């Protein structure tokens, strides 16, 4: 084996890098070039290393020399030199490379030093800058290990930085963000040098809350290949919350529900899952505020929403809970209150209906927060929100935002309240007119009124039944166009006017004449509603059958359910116009004899008209259902037919059955 080539130090005389050569067991200084002298000052040749480099900050350099001499392996070290006392200059930074060499005077060490002061200060300034704006900077190396350049992870999370993301980072990432974070990284890595990783995710902070962080990571190329990735992660929680607040307030301002249930149903969808995992709205059964001290008050479920991934919420079937002292205190003080639920611990009782308590257990709730619902200084009820599974309990910031969003829902809720009050007034007016049918010998009578489910569908549907002086039974059913208080008022006027005209015209007046006279009077008084109606006269014949005459003003035709045979509609030979349309067009009267056991049904269009289906389809369903209930008593018949309506519109029905001498007393079927 040929001897190792000997180093001639003079080859470094003109190099930019500072070079020194030391030989022997003491590291005697053999050579320094001019660049070394400029950087570190003149050093006398022949001195041992410990004398040649006796500087106060030279201890680390000397220990590296000893290690290279002992192991025979090259070492690199970063060092610095502080300025001499009284000299107005800055510290300087160097990178030393120490490698074993062979010289003419024996084994030695080659020292090459590079001044990195400019680069070091640039890095320090960068670190100071990003630290000032709460940025963490880190590098992912080719082997997947991660190095934190600008620290911040431990300050944020309370745990030390770990070089492996799957061990250090992912344990602190919100569980519902981990898969999305992984997918974003895999996509960026697959695109290589063209890939940029950008993602917003939540990190569990040292106080247990989650904060939104945004990371942007770009590849660093060397020789055309991705050598590593450098990333900056910034805390955007304050910005994210400000944007969330603006978005939620804008969304809640668009709520348009007509009833309180519909309006709150839209509100809870704004809150979930943006602010909370689930939200339930409960309205009080008591309108008086403040509540009487010993009043028996319940709260009824009217709207709910849950985030995806949780068990389906229980159906809204009106379940209620008796208001306890705890809930009363929350409502009276009008301050939200959060009840934390320890893992596996019991849920708080008597805050919610039992069905909701069972749902909290099934969904692994971690907290329940009660927030009073106040409109115009009146407490309507409360919202109950929950966090579930891996979501921590709401903090003060989240609770305040929930409260603010619910407060901004006051305007649409106030509109729903106004509609609800108008609806109550109209329904009270409506029901005041829909009196119990009279008792008639040889016949059974029953009536039903079902208001629409929507708050703005007040309606103008009505029925009437009364007996003329000669014993003629008059049955009416009608529908005034419109679905508001004006329609209900017009319905009252129309019913009373038609009743007065029928009574005043006297016995023997045909139904068509009564309706024609109504057209004239309504036109003359300027109280002409656009309405439809069926006006019928029923007279008992000597053989106990009944003579039926009727006139139809644009209304759905009466349904005859014979004792024997299939039900069918009584369509006249002519179709008359609705009321108050054209007084010059004559009206027609139709006649029929009802046998014992025959049933006559008058109804409004809400029973047979549904969106997406034709009127013919609705009438067919009515015929089938009537045939199925034909043997039932009249109240049961009407109750069975109610199921045909989707309750988008109100529905009025009145039924007559020709009986023998003993008949059922009249009845009214109401909701």
Descriptive report:
The chain is α+β, with helices and mostly antiparallel strands. The chain folds into four domains: 9-116, PAS domain (Beta-Lactamase, 2-Layer Sandwich), CATH 3.30.450; 133-235, PAS domain (Beta-Lactamase); 240-421, GAF domain (Beta-Lactamase), CATH 3.30.450.40; 434-669, 4-Layer Sandwich (Phosphatase 2c, domain 1), CATH 3.60.40. It is built from 17 helices and 27 strands. The strands form five sheets. Strands 13-12-11-16-15-14 form a six-stranded antiparallel sheet, sandwiched between helices. A six-stranded mixed sheet has the order 23-22-25-26-17-27, covered by helices on one side. α8 (237-252) runs parallel beside α12 (396-408) and α13 packs parallel to α14. The longest helix has 24 residues, at 410-433.
Short description:
The protein is an alpha+beta fold and 671 residues long. Helix content is 31%, strand content 29%.
Percent of residues in helices comes to: 25-40%
- Count of helical segments? 17
Show unreliable segments: none
**How many structural units, i.e. domains?**
4
How big is the Rg? 45 Å
Give the beta-strand count: 27
CATH class of the largest domain: Alpha Beta
Shape: rod-shaped
Looking at the structure, the CATH topology of the largest domain is Phosphatase 2c, domain 1
Give average pLDDT, whole number. Answer: 85
Structural class: alpha+beta
- Quaternary state of this entry equals single chain
Span of the ends, CA to CA:
110 Å
**Beta fraction:** 25-35%
* CATH arch. level architecture of the largest domain: 4-Layer Sandwich
Sequence of strands across the biggest β-sheet: 13-12-11-16-15-14
The largest sheet is:
6 strands, antiparallel
The CATH superfamily of the largest domain bears the name: PPM-type phosphatase domain
């Amino acid at each position: 084996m040929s001897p190792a080539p000997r180093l001639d130090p003079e080859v470094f005389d003109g190099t930019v890098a500072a070079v020194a050569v030391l030989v022997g067991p003491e590291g005697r200084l053999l050579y320094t070039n001019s660049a070394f002298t400029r950087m570190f000052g003149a050093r006398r040749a022949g001195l041992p290393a410990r004398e040649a480099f006796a500087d106060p900050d030279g201890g680390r350099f000397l220990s590296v020399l000893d290690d290279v001499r002992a192991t025979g392996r090259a070492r690199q070290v970063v060092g610095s030199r502080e300025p001499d006392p009284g000299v107005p200059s800055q510290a300087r930074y160097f990178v030393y490379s120490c490698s074993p060499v062979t010289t003419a005077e024996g084994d030695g060490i080659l020292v090459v030093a590079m001044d990195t002061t400019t680069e070091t200060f640039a890095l320090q300034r960068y670190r100071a800058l990003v630290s000032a704006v709460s940025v963490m900077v880190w590098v992912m190396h080719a082997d997947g290990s991660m190095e934190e350049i600008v620290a911040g992870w431990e300050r944020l999370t309370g745990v030390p930085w770990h070089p492996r993301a799957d061990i250090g980072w992912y344990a602190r990432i919100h569980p519902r963000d981990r898969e999305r974070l992984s997918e974003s990284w895999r996509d960026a890595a697959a695109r290589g040098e063209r890939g940029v990783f950008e993602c917003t995710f939540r990190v569990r902070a040292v106080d247990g809350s989650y904060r939104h962080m945004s990371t942007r990571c770009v590849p660093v190329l060397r020789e055309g290949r991705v050598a590593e990735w450098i990333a900056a992660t910034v805390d955007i929680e304050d910005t994210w919350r400000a944007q969330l607040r603006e978005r939620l307030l804008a969304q809640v301002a668009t709520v348009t529900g007509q009833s309180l249930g519909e309006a709150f149903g839209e509100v809870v969808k704004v809150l979930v899952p943006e602010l909370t995992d689930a939200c339930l709205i409960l309205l009080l059964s008591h309108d008086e505020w403040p509540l009487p001290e010993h009043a028996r008050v319940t709260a009824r479920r009217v709207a709910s929403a849950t985030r995806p991934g949780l068990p389906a919420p229980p159906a809204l079937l009106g379940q209620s809970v008796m208001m306890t002292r705890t809930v009363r205190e929350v409502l009276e003080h009008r301050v939200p209150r959060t009840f934390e639920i320890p893992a596996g611990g019991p849920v708080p009782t008597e805050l919610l209906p039992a069905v909701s308590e069972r749902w909290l257990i099934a969904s692994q709730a971690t907290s329940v927060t009660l927030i009073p619902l106040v409109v115009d200084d009146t407490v309507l009820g409360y919202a109950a929100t929950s966090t579930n599974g891996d979501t921590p309990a709401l903090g003060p910031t989240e609770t305040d935002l929930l409260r603010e969003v619910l407060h901004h829902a006051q305007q649409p809720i106030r509109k729903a309240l106004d509609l609800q009050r108008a609806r109550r007034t109209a329904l009270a007016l409506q029901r005041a007119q829909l009196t119990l049918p009279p008792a008639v010998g040889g016949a059974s009578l029953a009536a039903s009124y079902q208001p629409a489910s929507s708050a703005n569908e007040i309606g103008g549907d009505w029925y009437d039944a009364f007996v003329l002086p000669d014993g003629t039974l008059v049955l009416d059913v009608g529908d005034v166009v419109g679905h508001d208080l004006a329609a209900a008022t017009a319905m009252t006027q129309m019913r009373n006017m038609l009743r007065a005209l029928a009574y005043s015209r006297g016995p023997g007046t045909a139904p068509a004449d009564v309706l024609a006279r109504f057209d004239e009077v309504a036109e003359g008084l300027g109280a002409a509603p656009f309405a439809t109606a069926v006006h019928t006269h029923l007279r008992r014949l000597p053989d106990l059958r009944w003579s039926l005459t009727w006139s139809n003003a644009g209304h759905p035709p009466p349904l005859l359910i014979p004792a024997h045979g299939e039900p069918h509609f009584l369509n006249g030979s002519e179709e008359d116009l609705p009321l108050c349309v054209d007084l010059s067009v004559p009206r027609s009267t139709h006649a029929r004899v009802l046998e014992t056991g025959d049933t006559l049904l008058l109804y409004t269009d809400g029973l047979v008209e549904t969106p997406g289906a034709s009127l013919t389809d609705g009438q067919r369903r009515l015929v089938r259902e009537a045939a199925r209930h034909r043997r039932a008593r009249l109240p049961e018949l009407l109750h069975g037919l109610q199921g045909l309506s989707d309750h988008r519109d109100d529905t009025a029905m009145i039924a007559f059955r020709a009986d023998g001498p003993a008949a059922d007393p009249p009845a009214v079927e109401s909701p």
